[in-house]
């Protein structure tokens, strides 16, 4: 079988699939989950489920459906043309009957008018008026749809928020998150009258090693997991290690708890962060400080 036969077979297979089935097939081949795609595009999971199921009643209009499908194709890195070909087309785009009607009236008008008739050798002013009328009509009809499409495209391509070394996205940097003992704890000063004895002892014993001078780090709560989530509402949680390996990705249902054992440093994404409480090494962790909109994105070490 040559390359042309393979291409024809592929096109025939795509033609047999609906737009939603093409998107689902491409997403599953890449191993992407719907909540992850929804978080990237900043749309609800329900909208993506309706798009893959072909439920157009869940969308305000056809223009929104086509714009969302194009955005999903960009995320999945596939050609949007076969997908858009299977979607319904927006109404009111065929202006040829109106254009022909206007041209007919313009052509007949000068023959009926005697006083304001243009010379037959100068038809260009009338054609310019016709073009302006057509452009103005198209702009009035399609401006709302174009504005909505531009907003959705801008939201889909917005860059992710910058991240700091320990906890990314913390709004108040004057309140650092404590993840262990601090190496800047003050060392009690020796009494003044014992300075001579301390110096003599140091001279006899020798310099103190770095391990003896370092403060003892505060130990985590005994038996506590690395991460603990308690959901009051349905919330989606993803945890990645530094190597990029996803160690946890799940929708935590309201009223349930989840303990996660993982090796830091970790990258976390929490959807619907207001509906979940988090503990880090047995201590309460305030997700409000790292939440933007409804999603929290941060790192822990």
Topology of helices and strands:
Elements: H1 3-16, H2 19-30, H3 34-41, H4 45-53, H5 62-76, H6 80-85, H7 96-112, H8 124-156, H9 195-205, H10 210-213, E1 227-231, E2 235-241, E3 246-252, E4 257-260, E5 266-271, E6 276-280, E7 283-285, E8 291-292, E9 295-300
Antiparallel strand pairs: 1-4, 1-6, 2-3, 2-5, 5-9, 6-7, 8-9
Helix pairs in contact: 2-4, 2-5, 5-8
Question: Explain this structure to me?
Answer:
This protein has 10 helices and 9 strands. The chain is an alpha+beta fold. It folds into 3 domains: 3-85, lambda repressor-like DNA-binding domains (434 Repressor (Amino-terminal Domain)); 96-156, no CATH class; 227-300, Immunoglobulin-like, CATH 2.60.40. The strands form 2 sheets. A 5-stranded antiparallel beta sheet has the order 3-2-5-9-8, with no helix packed on it. The protein has a 4-stranded antiparallel beta sheet with strand order 4-1-6-7, with no helix packed on it. A hairpin with a 4-residue loop joins strand 2 and strand 3 (246-252). Helix 2 runs parallel beside helix 5 (62-76) and helix 5 crosses helix 8. It is elongated, with a radius of gyration of 33 Å. Residues 110-119 and 162-219 have low confidence and may be disordered.
């Amino acid at each position: 079988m040559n390359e042309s036969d393979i291409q024809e077979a592929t096109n025939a297979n795509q033609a047999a699939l609906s737009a939603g089935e093409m998107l689902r097939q491409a997403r599953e081949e890449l191993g992407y989950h719907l909540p992850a795609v929804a978080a990237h595009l900043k749309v609800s999971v329900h909208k993506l489920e309706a798009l893959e199921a072909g439920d157009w009643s869940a969308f305000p209009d056809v223009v929104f459906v086509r714009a969302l499908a194009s955005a999903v194709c960009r995320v999945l890195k596939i050609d949007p043309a076969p997908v858009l070909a299977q979607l319904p087309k927006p109404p009111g785009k065929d202006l040829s009957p109106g254009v022909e009607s206007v041209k007919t009236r313009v052509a007949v008008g000068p023959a009926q008018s005697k006083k304001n008739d243009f010379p037959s050798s100068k038809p260009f002013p009338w054609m310019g008026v016709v073009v302006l009328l057509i452009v103005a009509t198209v702009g009035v009809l399609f401006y709302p749809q174009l504005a909505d499409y531009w907003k959705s495209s801008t939201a889909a391509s917005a860059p992710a928020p910058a991240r700091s070394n320990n906890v990314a996205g913390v709004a108040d940097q004057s309140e650092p998150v404590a993840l262990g003992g601090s190496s800047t704890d003050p060392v009690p000063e020796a009494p003044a009258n014992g300075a001579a004895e301390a110096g003599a002892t140091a001279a006899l014993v020798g310099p103190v090693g770095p391990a003896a001078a370092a403060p003892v780090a505060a130990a985590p709560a005994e038996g506590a997991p690395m991460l603990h989530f308690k959901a009051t509402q349905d919330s989606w949680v993803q945890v990645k290690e530094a190597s990029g390996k996803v160690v946890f990705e799940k929708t935590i249902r309201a009223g349930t708890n989840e303990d996660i054992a993982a090796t830091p440093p970790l990258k976390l994404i929490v959807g619907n962060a207001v509906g979940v409480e988090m503990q880090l090494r047995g201590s309460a962790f305030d997700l409000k400080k790292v939440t933007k909109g409804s999603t929290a994105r941060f790192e822990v070490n």
